[in-house]
Write a structure and sequence with these properties.
This protein is an alpha+beta fold and about 260 residues long. The chain has five helices and ten strands, in the order αββαββααβββββαβ.
């Protein structure tokens, strides 16, 4: 009987321990499970936040690029429109319209270019080119037979360099030939314009043995003689007044290229 009682007591104690430990174990497992769930939720939330922030950045950068490209396109279109308007105004200034009115018929209008204005623009451009080429040689030494900036110039070589690519005809090589050039028209001294050739007879050889180019304000550019540099000189100086023989115009609307 005593053994039976001991065994029953032992079984009761084991049963009680098992029953008391089971809820605690279950509670511990549930707590661990809830912690794991919370961790997973936190990680997924962080991932969603990162993804949404990246998406927002991409959208912002795309919108910025689109805005910049739209601004660039607007600027280019405005520039194109302004240049087009300028071209139209220029064309309008260089054109004229003639209208013919007939009884019982529709009025006909024909646009034609103002040739005088077109020729004037071309002449001004050619004169400016010639002046720039000549002025760029000031201070360089005289060189007999020279026709280029590398070797230097004599008087007719300087003129040849300035006009050889601007007129349709061949520019002669000597001052006397230039003076008698058929394609050049005579000009009175009081009617000189920029680019006209002025001629002198300094050594009694031929009709003219020296040439320069009129640059306005009563002055001309020349390559004088050996030992002197290319310079601008006044036509009113006594020496040049005494030796002056005439002037020729080589650039006209018909002769320029």
């Amino acid at each position: 009987m005593a053994r039976i009682n001991k065994i029953s007591i032992t079984l009761c104690a084991l049963l009680f321990t098992t029953l008391s430990l089971t809820p605690a174990a279950n509670a511990s497992q549930q707590a661990r499970h809830s912690v794991v769930q919370k961790t997973h939720l936190a990680k997924s939330t962080e991932r969603k936040k990162k993804t949404s922030s990246k998406t927002a950045k991409k959208k912002n950068s795309t919108q910025t690029k689109q805005t910049a490209s739209s601004k660039t396109s607007v600027k280019s279109s405005r520039t194109a429109q302004s240049s087009k308007l300028k071209a139209q105004k220029t064309a309008a200034n260089l054109t004229t319209e003639k209208c013919t009115v007939r009884k019982g018929r529709k009025t006909k209008c024909v646009k034609s270019a103002k040739l005088a204005d077109i020729h004037k623009v071309r002449m001004q451009k050619a004169q400016k080119t010639a002046m720039n080429k000549l002025m760029g040689q000031i201070g360089k030494p005289y060189r007999w037979g020279g026709t280029s900036p590398r070797t230097g110039f004599d008087c007719s070589g300087l003129v040849y360099y300035a006009y050889k690519d601007l007129v349709k005809f061949r520019i002669p090589r000597t001052a006397n030939e230039m003076y008698h050039l058929r394609d050049a028209s005579p000009v009175n001294r009081g009617e000189l314009e920029n680019g006209d050739l002025v001629f002198f007879r300094t050594q009694g050889r031929g009709t003219a043995d020296h040439v320069g180019v009129y640059v306005g304000n009563g002055k001309f550019i020349q390559s004088p003689r050996s030992g002197r540099d290319i310079q601008i000189t006044s036509l009113s100086e006594e020496y040049w007044v005494r030796h002056y023989v005439g002037a020729r115009r080589v650039m006209t609307p018909k002769t320029i290229r």
